[in-house]
Amino acid sequence: MAEYKEIHGTKIRNYTTNPDNPIQGEVWYNDTDNVLKFQYAAVTTSGSWATGGTMNTARRRLAGAGTYTAALAITGTADPPLYANTELYNGSGWTEVNDVNTAREELSAAGKTSTSALIFGGNDPSRSAASEEWNGTNWANTPSMNTARGELGGCGDDNNSALAFGGLEPAASNKTELWNGSSWAEQSGDLNTARGAIMGAGIATSALAFGGYLPPGYQSLTESYNGTAWTAVNALNTARGYGTGVGASNTSALFSGGATPSDTSNVELWNGTNWTETTNLPSARVNAAAGGNTSNALIFAGRNPSLTGTSVEWTGAGQPVGAWATSASTNVAKYSMGSAGNNTSGMIFGGQTPGTTYITQTETWDGSSWTEVADLNTARDLMGGAGASNTADLAWGGRESNPTASAKTESWNGSSWTEVNDLNAVKEAMASTTGAPYTAALTFGGAAIPLPGTTKSETESWNGTNWTEVADLNTARSYIGGFGIQTSALAYGGYNDPSYKQFTESWNGSSWTEVSDFNSPATGAMGNAGVSNSSGIKFGGAPPYLTTTEDWNGTSWTETTDLPTGFAYGGSIGVATNAFAVAGQQGPGGTVSSTTFEFTKPGFTTKTVSTD
Q1: Distances (CA, A) of 378 to 199, 409, 612
Q2: Most buried residue among 299, 307, 322, 370 by CB atoms closer than 10 A?
């Protein structure tokens, strides 16, 4: 029998309290508490939704197939017309591909990939029995079902294996038909309860039918299929129809949205025995379509409440999540300072201390502590900053007093600051590519005096000697957030009179493009960490003083672990997986602080081993 050391590479050791840096899975004995303890990665306990790409054609009553990163959106209606359109999702955007042969709505589909799918039934506009197969490029007509119907349920692996059940003929149907790759055959095992507006998940030999409509109302019924017969099992928590269903088998399904009869955002998970309510859709949605499974799914199109082409991505529980922990404090409590560098070699400079005193102080970070070094030449706050480490950095702009904004730029060589060429325009409260090399910086947005109304959209690029104006933001903003490098950056939030915004824009080196808004309340003065327009986090912000942290994956924002307390107007350095929120204004009232918080992803949880 293998010993603990052979499995984990270490013996069980004794510590007075806990080890400083335990490895995942390590077990140790805590002498103070007289217990065994171990550490494991923190993961989500429930699923979450994030914004996906928007389809080219908004519609509802369509069919879906494939996965969350490679989905098919098939036919549908805009009340009218009926569509024959097919669109393919690649994880971020939709592309029009070849149309089906017969335009229709309220059909069903089978297909666990985007390269092999089958559609069947629907209304064109009369009840249809038509069936078509997709080979990844084209649709081809196949033999029809035996019974024409719409609002039917369906599921299956691909264009060689599918199951159709229920629907309206026009009367509610309980018929089940099996597709074997060449023909449809009626099965002896009918549904126990005929109904329309029914959802399905699984494959032809292991399927689940749930919800639906049968006068006088919506149904919570669930039936499980074993390849031969349907068996009634535990019902949904909320009776509804016209939603979306995905799942691998009759033991695993996700039911999202639908009508109760009012449109709903409810989401339920099936574990083979019971339905459990989980995280709701961002908004109510009905007559949508879906692809994927209970771990990762894409819901798209439908009505919410008007016709839409938007999509939302589902990520199930068990995903690694970050964790915030208190780190070493700065030497002086301050706020509205500039930042540069990375998570092991960073710096903060300037800012204000309580009482609106503008300061020149600079502190460097070595991964464990803050050290005071040579001061800036000009005291100011609300600056921009850039630098890949704490040995070569750049500081620019800001506010020297109120009401004096600055265009001054200073360069840091590891020991002192030197004035270099100014910005083209005076500005403060701008965003910057904090971790970019100091010879290739980018700054965007901001404001002139007086704040906050004189917002700016200008973007300037630094080549090591001079600033050059490049393409403007689409929306001028001050107190704007941002991260990235000179050729790949993200801008978000900030103030544009008369309100704060949730807008996000992506920079490709030559222009800004509007992308998905963040989820937390509209705000500015947040913390930022990231190295490109495809990966980063934002945290905190004001007003009010938020604790919210969101992760950007290149397409959408997802909320993750909150800060321990409200945070705004502070320093921020690092990357999406390891970042620091430095000093600033903290807590519900925005108290000026020297406290630093460190974000680590994945985070870890320490547990006590029961000896009972």
Answers
A1: 66, 10, 64
A2: 299
